[in-house]
Amino acid sequence: IQVFNDGITKQLLTLDGTIPVPFKGITYNIPICLWILDTHPYSAPMAFVKPTADMSIKASRHVDQNGKIYLPYLQEWNPDVSDLIGLVQVMIMTFSEMPPVYAKPKRAPPTPAQPAMPNPTTPYPTQPSECTS
Where is this region: Disordered (predicted)? Predict the structure, then answer.
């Protein structure tokens, strides 16, 4: 069930998966989600990039910072000639030119803090304290 910005609630079919996107000689599996409206095929689905925890969205003219996908294929959806397979093919072609996600930089393990100056020596002898009971 999806609540839209105008407050309308609709039950949608969601299709989650990955699409193979070739980029610079390597094929990446880009996670996407398609929301199929109850008016499908007369209305275009809503399409989103769904990055994994180790990915970030690369906003562009085709994908906003929330992952919503904007393509002419969706805007010009025609139930007589448009279908989900065609949409996926257009996403693959578009994303192979401009990938919608990138890998988050891996955090290096923290390095132990090194004191900036050596610890000063105590001007008097120290002895471990002993606890007596």
Answer: 103-133
For residue 129, tell me if it sits in a domain. no
Beta-bridge partners for 102: 56
Residue 92 belongs to some domain of the structure: yes
Structurally, the chain folds into a number of domains equal to 1
Domain enclosing residue 92, as ranges: 2-103
* pLDDT tens digits, 37-93: 989 999 999 999 999 999 999 999 999 999 999 999 999 999 999 999 999 999 999
Query: Is residue 96 exposed (0-12), middle (13-18) or buried (19+ Cβ within 10 Å)?
Result: middle
Of the candidates 13, 26, 19, the residue with the CA atom closest to the CA atom of residue 91: 19
> How far is residue 30's CA from residue 102's CA, in Å, rounded to a whole number?
10
- Percent of residues, the chain, with pLDDT higher than 70: 77
